Amino acid sequence: MNFVFLDFEATGLDATKVRPIELCAIVSHTGKGLSKIINHLIWESSYTELSDEVSEITHIPKDYYINNLVFTPREALTNFCTALQGLEPTDTFLVAHNALRFDKVLLEIECQRQAVPLPPLEWIDTQHDLPYPEKFKCRKLSHLALDHGITIDPSTLHRAAADVELMIAIFKKYTEEDILKFVMAPKVVLQALVSYDNRQLAKDR
Questions:
Q1: How far is CA 97 from the centre of its chain?
Q2: C-beta separation of 100 from 123 below 8 A
Q3: Residue 183: phi, psi to the nearest 5?
Q4: C-alpha span between 134 and 121 (Å, rounded)
Q5: pLDDT recorded at residue 33
Q6: SS3 state of residue 85
Q7: Is the Cβ–Cβ distance between 81 and 117 less than 8 Å?
Q8: Partners of 46 in beta bridges
Q9: pLDDT value at position 202?
Q10: Residue ranges of the chain with per-residue pLDDT less than 70
Q11: Model confidence over 9-63: pLDDT tens digits?
Q12: Which of 150, 151, 164 is nearest to 97 (CA)?
């Protein structure tokens, strides 16, 4: 099996509106170890300056594109998708944290914007698709790492490469067989339609 761990940093939090500013991807090959695909800072002239909030969260300077090697979104995604073409689709998963609400959405929208074909691969979302013990209530990446006894460096959190490394470390706490069994099992998603002020009612239920 091939597991492609990836993480995007972006210009904001709404995956339908943001643009990518960093992408890291590392492949874990069963029995063969890790191989890095890319670790790119991304920028193009249509981008606006990063907000103070994004710069503070990601630790990416607002003028990161000046003194660093950067790739356009098209270049970065072309490099990423070209590398995926060498992997067998039936034996490959894309893996990201909060993938279904962020990374997958961002990747698909940006690939469409840049006219870069994206291989049809299945996803594993490490926020929900690993067989975590019931006692692990929080699904933030840093909290999950600590729950699994993994040391974290707060100064590197939310940089793409650091987050990918944390995902891999958590992933390795489980067998591939147990993960795939959990991923393939039927699931039911329950959504509580309550207002923000009444969110406690949903938690209580």
A1: 4
A2: yes
A3: -65, -40
A4: 29
A5: 85
A6: coil
A7: yes
A8: none
A9: 85
A10: none
A11: 999 999 999 999 999 999 999 878 888 889 999 999 999 999 999 999 999 999 9
A12: 164
